Amino acid sequence: MAKDFSTMDDCNPSHNQSIHDLSNPLRRTILRGGLATTISSLLAPLGAVSLSGCSTTPTGIGPMLGFKSVTMNDLDTVTVPDGYRVQVLYRWGDAVGIAGNMPAYKSDASNTATEQEAQAGMHHDGIHYFPLDGSQRGLLVMNHEYTDDGLLHVGGMRDWSAEKVAKAQAAMGVSVIEIVNRGNSWEVVRPSRFARRVTATTPMLITGPARGHARLRTRDDASGAVVLGTVNNCAHGFTPWGTYLTCEENFNGYFNGPDKPDADQARWGLKKGGAGYRWHEFDERFDVARHPNEYNRFGWVVEIDPMDPTSTPVKRTALGRAAHEGAHVTQTRDGRVVVYMGEDSRFEYIYKFVSRDAVRPGGAKANADLLDHGTLYVARFNAGGRGEWIELTQGKNGLTAERGFASQGDVVISTRQASDLVGATKMDRPEWIASDAKTGWVYCTLTNNATRGKPGFPGVDAANPRVENTMGNIIRWKEDGDFAATTFAWNHFVMAGNPVLDRADAKGNVKGDQLGSPDGLWVDGRGVLWIETDISTSTLGKGDYAATPNNGMYAADTTTGEIRRFLVGPRGCELTGVIMTPDMKSLFVNIQHPGEPASERSNPDEVMKVSTWPDKARPRSATIVITRADGGVIGA
Ligand code: FEO
Ligand code: CA
Ligand code: CA
Q1: Is residue 621 part of a domain?
Q2: Residue 366 C-alpha to ligand 2 middle, in angstroms?
Q3: Any idea what the CATH number is for the domain that residue 149 is in?
Q4: Helix H or strand E segment including 141
Q5: Rounded distance from Cα 401 to ligand 2 centre (Å)
Q6: Is the CB of 9 under 6 A from ligand 1?
Q7: Per-residue DSSP letters for 2-56?
Q8: CB of 248 closer than 6 A to ligand 1?
Q9: 490: domain range?
Q10: pTM of structure
């Protein structure tokens, strides 16, 4: 079972000489594997596909990786390379900046639900910077993925109440804040006419093929076209017309299932007593037994126009329904958009949506329905480094009325089942996706899947080759021609892991610094691939991964394959969002759930034994800004 992953590496192996810290004997071992690599195994299946990704000399500013690696540590702080500065900018509970409504954060968690609606939510995740004045002033738009009710309320989940449910619903969703560069630091502009929170109760429209579908109609919405709120907002996307996409990931965790779940409810894991967030006890629409269609109204990609705080968010059903991690947007040469989406659940899928129409000039209003019309595909990764996109269109590929797909609405509501039927590849938890416009490579983090190959679960395949995959990998593909193509070439960019381990699930082929469970992913303007990790706290600090107690963020030179550690987060956190200003001189990173695992709905006193970041008090997820003391480009 121990596959030699080193032979799947590509690119010029002589570049391995640039890898730092060659004194480490383990690293030298890894390097020898890299030097033995030939590119012929990759070249063979590619056919007409360009291999420019392996031969292109970066044309950006400075060397691809111009910083000294940060050492692994378990400090309760953010560690960055020498010459870099860290500023905490926007923490859970900080005022968003709505005029006349800027409640101060109370460190004992006694802010009310109403106050929380005007404050930063919990658990920062995907993030994007929308310029207002280039790299000096802009909007930061970010997700707040979920709540830690142990920290959110006085007394945690004891004395559970309607007020606590309302506060939890107000603490997730999306923040829109205005920020300005004051020279030595960034500030949140308060008040700002753009400041906004989108929460689990914000009215939203439903558009696309599922709009008005019988399975989307409820007691409170007979139209099946209007829904309250968005939940579990994980990763994100942004469009060429200036809107933000927030993605509903593990929405099923908010719904209490019925006594006897039907097949669809079981596919989503709904069961009685399965809603750990306990919203249904005071908000009955989250009780599936009483409102059987409400959960069909979640699991979508939601589009928000951050420039218009009065705009109504829209759930775009043409992109399919899934436990959406993110929605990465790129464009074809003829101007259509292609949206790549991973579904972060074990044995779920990777999707692609290709718009019918090209992007029109005129911004958000001119493209208000662009994501409503197009073709949805799911990926099949075949052996031999080739793959195909299988169309998920009613009437094609067996998606017929006899099999439960009488309309395209049926297909997009039951995207998982449609993907099962067409024989898509069941992946090891696809998280973020990023593309490199210069090379055409599209990267996707497959964070881990500890059940792969266990009795009763799917076995390994070419794309998911590790039994009980604890460390994850980054897979990548290059479309045959433009991004709208239906076939592609693929390989593994890296198998993550700890080089000292000899187990197939844990020993990686990383050229450079050890990492595990890659999650966040973004390609910057120079072509550097930024990787954020989310090793489970049940794995961190124990056994296999004892040498890497805190999660971190890494920069990869995709021309050489080198991965170098740029940042280590505080204790118990995962690194989530990542984006820079256009000049690449300010880097925004989201730090999520410092203090885990003790933080999960538990006693704050216990949590603070793990982490008190960033205030030396109850820990708070936060956006940080990283700049260089010399004002230079980040990472160069
Ligand atoms: Fe919300 Fe899959 O991370
Ligand atoms: Ca994630
Ligand atoms: Ca993750």
Answers
A1: yes
A2: 31
A3: 2.120.10.30
A4: strand 137-144
A5: 35
A6: no
A7: ---GGGG--S-GGGGGG-S-TT-HHHHHHHHHHHT--SHHHHHHHTT---HHHHP
A8: no
A9: 8-249+299-628
A10: 0.90
Atom of ligand 1 nearest to the CA of 344: 2
Q: What is the pLDDT of residue 66?
A: 97
Cα separation, 544 vs 235, whole angstroms: 28
Closest CA relative to residue 149, chosen from 615, 611, 593: 593
Segments of the chain with pLDDT less than 70: 1-60, 537-548, 598-602
Pairing verdict, β 473-479 and 487-495:
antiparallel
How far does Cα 474 stand from its chain's mean position?
A: 13
Please work out whether the CB of residue 249 comes within 6 Å of at least one atom of ligand 1. Answer: yes
- CA 400 / ligand 2 centre spacing (Å): 34
Q: Which ligand lies nearest the alpha carbon of 534?
A: 3
Number of structural domains the chain divides into: 1
Residue 446's closest CA among 480, 483, 493, 502? 493
Task: For residue 476, give both structure tokens.
Answer: 């990548």
By residue count, the chain amounts to 636
Is residue 30, in this structure, part of any structural domain at all?
Answer: yes
| Residues 509-562: tens digit of each pLDDT | 999 999 999 999 999 999 999 999 999 766 655 555 555 579 999 999 999 999
From the centroid of its chain, how far is CA 312?
A: 23
Alpha carbon distance 347, 228 (integer Å)? 30
- Name the strand (E) or helix (H) holding 605: helix 604-610
pLDDT score for 600? 53
Write phi, then psi, for 586 (nearest 5 degrees).
-130, 125
- Residue 214 covered by a domain: yes
Q: Strands, DSSP E only, in 359-512?
A: 374-382, 386-391, 427-428, 430-435, 441-446, 473-479, 487-495, 511-512
Q: 235: CA distance to ligand 2 center in Å?
A: 6
Residue nearest to atom 1 of ligand 1 (CA): 234
Q: What is the sign, positive or negative, of the torsion defined by CA atoms of 439, 330, 307, 115?
A: negative
Cβ contact 477:387 at 8 Å: yes
Half-sphere exposure of 69 (CA within 13 A, CB side): 19
Task: Point out which residues pair with 133 in neighbouring strands.
Answer: 137
| 532, β-bridge pairs | 553
Cβ of 344 closer than 6 Å to ligand 1, yes or no, is yes
Query: In sequence order, what are the beta bridge partners of 388?
Result: 380, 487
pLDDT in tens, 142-183: 999 999 999 999 999 999 999 999 999 999 999 999 999 999
Q: What pLDDT shows up at residue 18? A: 27
- 564's CB contacts (< 8 A; 6+ apart) are 20, 65, 67, 69, 512, 513, 554, 555, 556, 557
What single-letter amino acid sits at 567?
A: L
Would you say residue 276 lies in a domain?
Answer: no
